[in-house]
Amino acid sequence: MAAAGLRGVLWQRAAARLQAARAAAAAPPGARAASQVTQDMLPGPYPRTPEERAAAAKKYNMRVEDYEPYPDDGFGYGDYPKLPDKSHHERDPWYQWDQPDMRHNWGEPMHWDFDMYIRNRVDTSPTAVPWHIMRRHFLIFVGTMLVMFVIGGMYPSYMPVGPKQYPFNDLYLERGGDPNKEPPVVTHYEI
C-alpha cells in the first residue's frame, strides 16, 4: 500500500517537473513556427489600379505583362497570380532547378493548386496520339470483343473429347466383373 502511494507521489512530481521544463522551453507567445508562410508571401487585396498590379507583379517576381490575378469572386485569392494549369511534367527535366523534385526555383510563384499538378498526380503534357484517335481505337476494341462474346455464346466451341480410357480392360475386376470369366477386349483405337 505504501509503495503504491509512493509511486503516485513520484509520478506527480515527475509530471510537475516535465510541465515546468516545457513552459521554460516554449516559444514566446507571438512566435510562429518556421514552416509557416510569412506575411509578405500571403496574398494581398485584389489589385484595382495599374500601380497596384505592378506592385503585385513585383511581389511575385513577375513581369507586369505576364501578371494576371485570379478574378475577384470572393474565394480569397486576392492578388495571387493566376498561373497556367500545367503539370510539372511539362517542365524541363534537365534544367538545374533549385528544388529538382518539384521542378521549382526559389522565389518563383507556385500554382494555387500546385499539389494537383506535381509529378505524381495529373499529367497535362500533350499526348503522342490525339485523344479522338485513342477513343476510336478503344471503342473499336471493345465493340469487337462484345461481338466475339455474342458469337461465342451463340456457337459454342469445345475441344474434341474421346471416351475416358482405363487400364486393365477398363477396370473389369474393379467394377465388379466376374474373376472366373475372361474379360472382354476393349479397343480404344482403329487401325
Structure at a glance:
It contains four helices and no strands. The protein has helices at 2-25, 50-59, 131-154, 167-171.
What does this molecule look like?
The chain has 191 residues and is mainly alpha-helical. Helix content is 33%, strand content 0%. The protein has 4 helices and no strands. The chain has helices at 2-25, 50-59, 131-154, 167-171. The longest helix has 24 residues, at 2-25. 5% of the residues are buried. The model has no long low-confidence stretch (mean pLDDT 83).
Instruction: Give the biggest sheet.
Output: none
Strand content: under 5%
Distance between the termini: 100 Å
Q: Look at the helices and sheets and give the structural class.
A: mainly alpha
Return the average pLDDT rounded to an integer. 83
Low-confidence regions:
none
Work out the radius of gyration: 40 Å
Number of strands: 0
Helical percentage: 25-40%
Secondary structure tally, helices: 4
Shape: elongated
Order of helices and strands: HHHH
List the helices and strands and how they pair.
Blueprint: H1 2-25, H2 50-59, H3 131-154, H4 167-171
